[in-house]
Backbone:
């Protein structure tokens, strides 16, 4: 059963009910996804479908119906269906994180509120991957990365001129005019496999290095740069004396970039040489998806946000988010 915005999803021809595991395939780009999670919009190419086919492979009738006709208001359900909904809504929500993780997240967010100001953090929106925030046609170029860097820095209240954006590669690459590429083997620290690094060279010199091979992954570049800039917020602005990767991840979420972080799986680690130090980024992540989702739900609840942006989350994180948000809402009176 799928419950979406006060409606349940059911085939108007035969009454078959899809669930979150069902998949449809786009006839344009071949992307497979659950069409009801995106209101019949393909996440691969953006095509909007007017009709939806009932899945015969999942015991449905196989017929086509208008997508809008699949959504049935709960109040219009039959008495038997309403009994099912009553049981569904009265079921107590369970947390997708442990009690220890829950307390760490809430304490960490309170620490960030103390650092940056509670009113300021509450005012920050969740950044979504659309033209409202990133109004540009991306082609995977260095110029695109420069645009993203300046945009993310502005959203995080950082003057981008205080940090130099640099590029490196582990492979031979074609040069763009005015761009100097440095092979990673010639750089200090263990860079192999990293997607980006933040470097404090001392004397006010800050650099963020971005791997050229990652530039075609726009969402990944946004995730990388938001994390590197979170290091700047905590360390260069003297809010912390030592690096803490978990708190850096939490800062990324607090500043609104949780969607990009949750949809990109990265690992961040620290290195240090004789004269420089920095952090590198690799696939996998420090905070697991459950903790990212709970932190996003906690912030969204505190900010009274319209959480319609949750459809941008991948299906796994979205489930964790919905469970977390429901739990927080049910326990808001007892929350510390």
Residues:
């Amino acid at each position: 059963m799928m419950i979406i915005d006060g409606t349940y999803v059911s085939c108007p021809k035969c009454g078959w009910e899809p669930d979150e595991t069902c998949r449809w395939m786009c006839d344009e780009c071949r992307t497979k996804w659950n069409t009801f999670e995106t209101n019949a919009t393909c996440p691969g190419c953006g095509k909007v479908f007017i009709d939806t086919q009932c899945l015969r492979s999942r015991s449905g009738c196989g017929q086509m119906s208008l997508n809008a006709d699949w959504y049935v208001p709960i109040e219009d359900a039959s008495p038997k269906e309403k009994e099912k909904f009553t049981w569904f809504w009265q079921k107590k929500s369970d947390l997708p994180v442990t009690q220890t993780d829950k307390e760490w997240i809430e304490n960490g967010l309170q620490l960030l509120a103390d650092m940056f100001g509670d009113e300021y953090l509450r005012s920050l929106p969740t950044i979504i991957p659309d033209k409202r925030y990133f109004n540009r046609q991306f082609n995977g170029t260095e110029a695109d990365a420069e645009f993203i860097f300046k945009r993310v820095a502005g959203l995080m209240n950082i003057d981008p001129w205080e940090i130099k954006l640099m590029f490196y590669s582990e492979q031979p690459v074609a040069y763009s005019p005015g761009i100097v590429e440095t092979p990673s083997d010639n750089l200090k620290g263990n860079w192999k496999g990293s997607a980006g690094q933040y470097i404090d060279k001392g004397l006010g010199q800050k650099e963020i290095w971005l791997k050229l091979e990652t530039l075609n992954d726009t969402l990944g570049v946004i995730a990388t740069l938001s994390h590197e800039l979170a290091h700047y917020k905590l360390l260069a602005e003297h809010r912390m004396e030592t690096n803490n990767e978990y708190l850096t991840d939490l800062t990324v979420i607090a500043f609104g970039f949780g969607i990009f972080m949750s949809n990109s799986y990265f690992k961040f680690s620290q290195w240090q040489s004789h004269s420089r130090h920095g952090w590198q980024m690799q696939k996998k992540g420090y905070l697991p998806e459950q903790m990212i989702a709970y932190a996003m739900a906690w912030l969204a609840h505190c900010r009274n946000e319209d959480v319609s942006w949750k459809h941008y989350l991948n299906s796994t994180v979205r489930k964790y988010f919905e469970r977390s948000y429901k739990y927080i809402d049910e326990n808001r009176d007892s929350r510390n």
Residues 150 and 332 are 37 Å apart (CA to CA).
